[in-house]
Design brief:
Helix content: 40-55%
Number of domains: 4
Strand content: 5-15%
Order of helices and strands: HHHHHHHEEEEEHEHHHHHHHHH
Radius of gyration: 24 Å
Distance between the termini: 50 Å
Number of helices: 17
Low-confidence stretches: none
Mean pLDDT: 87
Length: 388
Amino acid sequence: MSSMLSVAVPPRVWDWVLKIGDRDRLSSALSRDIERWKIGRNAPTMADIDTVSTRLRVPFGYFFLQNPIDDTPAVFAHRTLGSEDSMKTPSRDLVDTVNDMAALQDWARQDQIDAGEEVLPFVASMTLHSTVPQIVGSIREVLALSEDWFDEGNLHSAKDAFDFLRKRAERAKIIVMMNGVIGENTHRKLDPDEFRAFALIDEYAPLVFINRADEPDAARLFSLVHELVHIWLGADELFNDKAVPHAVSETERLCNAAATEILMPDSVFVQEWKNGGVDLDTEARVKVVCGRFPVSSSAVLLRALNHRLVTQQQYEQGVEKAREWADGERPKPSGGDYYLTKRSRYDRRLLDHIATSVAEGRTSYLDAYRLTRTNRNTFPKLLEMLAS
């Protein structure tokens, strides 16, 4: 039987797959077997390779290469993490997520081209020499936002504001995806400490992915707007600023400033801060401002610090208190409705285009199942939910 055929895997390939794979999932017995195979004492069978591939979460075909390859997603080179993390290898969860999104983006790009659509003029329309007002003005124009859009729609909660901006982005043909696990695998949860979001730039189908595991809602909202700015700059990015409170590059400083201006316009912020009068202490004043803008108290404190409305000590104390409160109050995630959760993961416009393409015979059902991680039973139900 083919499963009993032995496979000669070069030692350098063993070293490589162990480096990029999830070694913590290997049993001690399997680890000992691998060490024997590496030095040529016995050889693994096809079944053994399949087991190791599954445990390491490394593609089966990698074991048949003669030399290692670099499968690191290009976006990993554009992460916002500090220099201490610059040499880290991306997890297989991140690699698989980026690859899934790249496949969706490739499909969407070709769909737009086949439909005779023009390139999106706002993609890469700004540069590092652009000013914050220029970037913010263009984003507001494309998304049809007023300066105080959060007041007009009574969108003072981060969740409502996120849903609103997501719809506006999708209307502008920006793909917005969100998930907290790999596909449907709840055992492969995405780590928000590795990344909060990423943007993949394309002039026909720019894509933003939001890590749903990132809490709270205000964090996801800021990630969304931050990645939108990257689309305007035409720069792929893997976003995680938790470990770096102050941006470490000119690009990140510009993105943070523009995102903050959209969510909490400077002139409105200063006016709102002063509305409390002189009797409010810092904590009470921050709560008042948070009631106006769909942002976190930490974001309000940072804005106040930049305006020298609070001291560095007040800022640090306030941020620490907010972190402690969030850790204590964070709700446990519930299972929720399967199809509602499934639909929330996908860009509604993209799902509609995939369904139309299948109906017209331009995309096979198998490809649709692969793109949406569904099957012959769940795909129709997902489309029914989409239409409801």
